[in-house]
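User: Could you walk me through two proteins back to back? I'd like the raw sequence and the structure tokens for each, with a short line separating them so I can tell where one ends and the next begins.

Assistant: Of course. Protein one, sequence then structure:
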Amino acid sequence: MAERFFTDDELRQMERRTVDRLTDAIEAGDATKAKKIAQRMYNEFLSMHDLYRNWITATLSEVGRRYGDQALDDVMLEGVRAWWKPILDSMPKDAASLPAKIKMFAAGLHGHLQPLEIIEDDEKITVKMCPCGSGGRLIQEGKYEGPDAFLTIEKPQPMTYGCSNYPVYCAHEYAMEKIDIEENGHPFVVVEPAAKLGKDHCSLIVYKNPKEIPLKFYTRIGLEKPA
């Protein structure tokens, strides 16, 4: 009989969720072990986050290369609609609940596992991921370079906010805004792309009064601003 790799206790520990092991360490008062497990849980989630990030970017790249920009636009809209519309539907609709909606939005961004910078002024809330945990890190990691590069959308169009050579992953932001405008008349959040994608930080902007959203955020994606 071959020698066993693991004891029964080791197997039982591997079966357990990392969050349960973290809770046990906290309840036992073992701060050193809790910190170690917390970092392990972060690494586990970041690995899964990047796996799905790369998977969807590779898939969108193949759609664009094989079938062209219009098919990519169609697929982008339907793919984003599947997850963005339920989020929009779950948010409270009254103006008084806007602070709660912004907290929900920030909580969602924390799923990218990067620090946030949040600034408020009289007309808006501006959120930046520092760095962007998805599209920005793809650029920083060189995923749009070399023989296995992901797709950059060559022609300026609504999907690229009128920019040329736009990273395909980042085009989902256009889809979020367009779906929201079609569903609710205005976007909850608009994106101001960084001057240098992957180097500077994009701004995710929530206007306190939707009527004050500048016209450019509608026209750049081929839509009219409601009267």
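----
Protein two, same layout:
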Amino acid sequence: MSRSCPIGGEAKRKPDDARLPLSALLCFAMAGFITILTEALPAGLLLQMSADLGVAPSAVGQSITIYAIGSIVAAIPLTAATQRFPRKPLLTCVIAGFALVNTITAVTDVFGILLAARFFAGVCAGLLWAMIAGYAARMVADHLKGRAIAIAMVGTPLALSMGIPAGTLIGSSIGWRSTFLLMTALTLVLIGWVWASVPNYPAATTGNKTSVSGTLAIRGIKSVLVVTLLFVLSHNILYTYIAPLVASAGLAQRLDLVLLVFGAAGIVGIVLVGYLIGQRLRLLVLTSIALFGAAALVFGNWGGNPDLFWLAIGVWGLAFGGAATLFQTAAANISGKASDVAQAMIVTAWNLAIAGGGILGGLLLEYAGVPWLPWSALALLSLAYALAVRAKLK
């Protein structure tokens, strides 16, 4: 098990250690929780922010878009450029970046400054997501990599299912600015936790640095990236426009409960993935795609039936909950020493899919209508399944 080491020192672990460094892995989970909250809070606080800043709600919504853009443009080049830095100080600086940008977001009255802060928040997120999976995998023996990544990623479904609704509720009570300052306080706590619990690792040497082109040349990595892109694109076509999808089932007044069911099922999904991933990665990837495809088929054929709709929401959440863990573990297993760069590529593909899902889903909604959303997702998932069957996942 990895042990904390003096500042600047190298962490050491025994490859045959059967224990997980839970405190360090939960640090990563909290980092993911804060990252997702930072990204999505403006959606829940949209009207408050709009009224206070004197801009249209649609303009506030772009603060989420620009966050994603920051992650897209920064993840790969920044990850490649920072290979020469020791891991723990770099991780601490990235987390501190969230404290800075959330504080700026909370205190500024200038919308342009807020957007700039949100862009740099996305930059921090891109680098953080690229580091988490590789860092978690590095701390444990090979047969525990998947389980370690699952624990490190549990903050994502927790943020989606509980964090965002709680943040929205807190914002309605204490105001949106105080909510972002509360995020800063949580981040400062996390920095202390990281410094106490997370082991350090040295910078890459000249001989073991990895390039983007070299990572792409690794056999199997392109398949993982494409399957990730297709799966997350399918998800965001539906999730971005879940409100009209829910309304088509006659459940418009229960959207909050639908999201809660989705998030709760996602937590179950990541727990199951964490338990089974050690020897069942390929089967879990194929099962997740198939379950999501089945849910999309129900939405397309029987989306107006409330009972079947609830079932499909649960199945969708179950399939999506462990997706990040599955794809990041596959990338870590395939890429080896190039893991950080490979994870940056996963982050970029993921955020491209978020942006692409919003655009493609919006076009489908406007020109074809709600029924086409699940069918387009099903078509993409069918392609993802075919590619995953051929891919050499391990």
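The chain is about 80% helix and 0% strand.

Let me know if you want the two compared in more detail.
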